[in-house]
Amino acid sequence: MTDVWTFALITPDGVVSDAFDSIVDLVQRNGFVVVTGRVLQLDLPTMMRVYRASEAVDLENDPFAQLYGSGAACLLLLHRADGDACATLTRCKGATRPDAAEPGTVRYLGENVILNLLHCPDDPANALRELSILVGPETAERYRAEAVSGVLRGAAAVRASLPATHGWEAISYPVAVNRIRRRIAQQFAPADAGLQAALDDERDRIAECRTSSERRRAADRENPSIQRRLTSLGLGELAGAPPDQAVLAERGVFVSQLERLVIDTHDT
Q1: DSSP H helical segments within the chain, as ranges?
Q2: 10-19, 119-128, 142-151: lowest mean pLDDT where?
Q3: What's the pTM value of the predicted model, to 2 decimals?
Q4: 62 pLDDT tier (thresholds 50, 70, 90)
Q5: Count of CA atoms in the C-beta half-sphere (13 A) of 54
Q6: Pair 243, 180: CB distance under 8 Å
Q7: What are phi and psi of 40, to 5 degrees?
Q8: What's the average model confidence in pLDDT over 154-178?
Q9: SS3 category, 268
């Protein structure tokens, strides 16, 4: 059985509307497990290649351009031991228009034909092609191999890396750094359980604090061990707290506009 993997791309409207948990719950109820994931920045030219669309578009005013540029997207690699992964996820996705989608499908929860939460490949032939466009051929092949094998790292680690959009976490400097470091780990050291555990411990310590100064002191205590881990993995240029934003951009690590503001003003 070869059709045991696919991917779900939660578009920025799905991330900002906090549909992540509902989507994960739905796919799990249909026999999928979340193998791994990654926060992405999309753009219209990339998605036009994914959709095999060739018509001329207005890169500033097209509604899809505005959607893809509005914030983070989230890629989920999925394994389905019973097979029929692509067809099953396509059924779970539902009709393009939310008003035509069946109850119990993802897009039934959407807003309109643009803000409909999710993309996924229609068949196995397109799964690797589209994934290669989104993350590059080498990373796509690694993700495919992991998804086929079903090596599970789960949805919780991906959830914790999504940008915060409300609450105290959205403007907390230590939390922003923790989330960005999780994305670094996802992209460059996905198999390092020790780094993941250290980031979880740091996040737990931060969450126990009530004020920004307490949160910073807690992060400062955890920071040296995390920096050593990142450096030992060959990621020294990304080990800073905060990581250098130019390096993050060069290496393709997503940072939201609000996170950039939080980092840029943390000494103010």
Answers
A1: 12-16, 20-29, 44-51, 63-68, 85-93, 124-135, 137-149, 155-161, 173-188, 193-207, 212-232, 245-250, 257-264
A2: 142-151
A3: 0.91
A4: confident
A5: 0
A6: yes
A7: -130, 155
A8: 92
A9: coil
